[in-house]
UniProtKB/TrEMBL annotation:
List of residues that carry N6-(pyridoxal phosphate)lysine: 247
Biochemical pathway: Cofactor biosynthesis; biotin biosynthesis
Keyword Cell cycle among UniProt keywords: no
Identification of the protein by name: 8-amino-7-ketopelargonate synthase
Aminotransferase class I/classII large domain sequence ranges: 47-394
PROSITE patterns: AA_TRANSFER_CLASS_2
Necessary cofactors: pyridoxal 5'-phosphate
InterPro entries attached to this UniProt entry: Aminotrans_II_pyridoxalP_BS (IPR001917), Aminotransferase_I/II_large (IPR004839), AON_synthase_class-II (IPR050087), AONS_Archaea/Firmicutes (IPR010962), AONS_Archaea/Proteobacteria (IPR004723), PyrdxlP-dep_Trfase (IPR015424), PyrdxlP-dep_Trfase_major (IPR015421), PyrdxlP-dep_Trfase_small (IPR015422)
GO BP annotation list: biotin biosynthetic process
Superkingdom, natural source: Bacteria
Subunit structure: Homodimer.
This enzyme's EC code(s): 2.3.1.47
Length: 405
């Protein structure tokens, strides 16, 4: 029998950093889901109202998605067996890409293994060291990593500050190289909407490439969840649209939409696409079924927004800081409860869990120091009774722990 081996001296610096996290009160352990991803579910043996999931439209356990996954597994097997460019492109992968392209009203689409690789792989492949990237300061980590990998010169503009973005563009207007403006459609930590329309106008004015990451806008904003480009009515003015298949679409992966030439180029140069095995056919089938549901069950999005506005109003009335003073104001189903202090935030999140509400504490480095928050996410499938129960629990625990006076 072998015995487990502890941390060797070569990795002692990791232990020291973990100890530091524990002293700060921001160390955490993964909570384990024991049943379906649902509005009320079981984590670590405790039944809780779930306010932490990205399952915006409740599709994670929809019967039509289950049926599609099972049928595809029976027909095609459990795996594709190769990367897309060698032997792993199945007809069902092409059907998914065609489905998304038609949904987003663009020429073509390519699916990646995750939203993270879609962003990082695209930015790093379409630009080089002679080029410039203008990025919102609160853009997602995958955008930041892609920008670094591209070796392009990075200019960061203040959050949603279009005038600052233009100032930076003017500074480099006569520099050689391409310019890329990139923003989140919905910012994942604050839940505010990026100024995609105004930045698209700016990109047009200066001949820059316009790119948007719609991970949290897909299935949430726009007609039938078509995203921020549709929300603002700027079809044809955004060159690169990135989305995810793992949030409202309830499965796994990411995608990039745009011109046929853009997608053909990514087929040849995007390293995550070139060097990762393609999705199991069950995943592709699940995603196709989800896009069908976006068209056939628009009432899900209507319920999502009704629940969202009710929840925000009640939190605000109770006296919680949900953004708008020291942080951006949430405009979407993502609603942060801002506490500021990391330890206080993690303690509040733990107390909520013990009282029956799952709401994740988020602290540095995911958000800046002093901006720690408990992030809540509403879904279409939360009932009014569940929302009211969650609100009551949040308020009672907040008063008991000193979060509210």
């Amino acid at each position: 029998m072998t015995t487990s081996i502890g941390t060797r001296p070569q990795l002692a610096h990791l232990t020291a950093q973990i100890d530091d996290l524990k002293q700060r009160g921001t160390f955490f352990k993964l909570r384990v889901l024991e049943d379906e991803q649902a509005p009320v579910c079981t984590y670590d043996g405790r039944r809780v109202i779930n306010l932490a999931s990205n399952n915006y439209l409740g599709l994670c356990n929809h019967p039509k998605l289950r049926e599609a996954a099972i049928a595809a597994t029976v027909k095609y097997g459990v795996g594709s067996g190769a990367v897309r460019t060698i032997a792993g492109t199945m007809r069902i992968h092409m059907e998914l890409e065609e489905k998304i392209a038609a949904f987003k009203n663009v020429e073509a689409c390519v699916v990646f293994q995750s939203g993270f690789t879609a962003n990082a792989g695209t930015v790093s492949s379409i630009l080089g060291k002679e080029d410039f990237i203008l990025s919102d300061e609160l853009n997602h980590a995958s955008i930041i990593d892609g920008a670094r990998l591209s070796r392009a010169k990075i200019k960061v503009f203040r959050h949603k500050d279009v005038e600052h973005a233009e100032e930076l563009l003017k500074e480099i207007e006569n520099e050689p190289g391409r310019k890329l403006i990139i923003t989140d459609g919905v910012f994942s930590m604050d839940g505010d909407i990026g100024p995609v329309d105004k930045l698209a106008v700016l990109a047009e004015k200066y001949g820059a490439i316009m790119m948007v990451d719609d991970a949290h806008a897909s299935g949430v904003l726009g007609r039938n969840g078509r995203g921020s480009v549709d929300h603002f009515g700027v079809h044809g003015k955004v060159d690169v649209q990135v989305g995810t298949l793992s949030k409202a679409i309830a499965s796994l992966g990411g995608y990039v939409c745009g011109s046929r030439d853009l997608i053909d180029y990514l087929y040849h140069r995007a390293r995550p696409f070139l060097f990762s095995t393609s999705h199991p056919p069950s995943v592709a089938a699940t995603c196709i079924a989800a896009f069908d549901l976006l068209e056939s069950e628009p009432e899900r999005i209507e319920r999502l927004w009704a629940n969202t506005w009710y929840f925000k109003e009640q939190l605000t009335s109770a006296g919680f800081d949900v953004g708008g003073v020291t942080t951006p104001k949430s405009e979407t189903p993502i609603t942060p409860i801002i506490l500021g202090d990391g330890r206080k935030t993690m303690d509040f999140s733990k107390a909520l869990f013990e009282a029956g509400v799952m709401a994740t504490g988020i602290a540095f480095p995911t958000v800046p120091e002093g901006k720690a928050r408990v992030r809540t996410i509403m879904t279409s499938e939360h009932t009014r009774a569940e929302i009211d129960q969650a609100l009551e629990t949040i308020t009672v625990v907040a008063k008991r722990t000193g979060v509210l006076s």
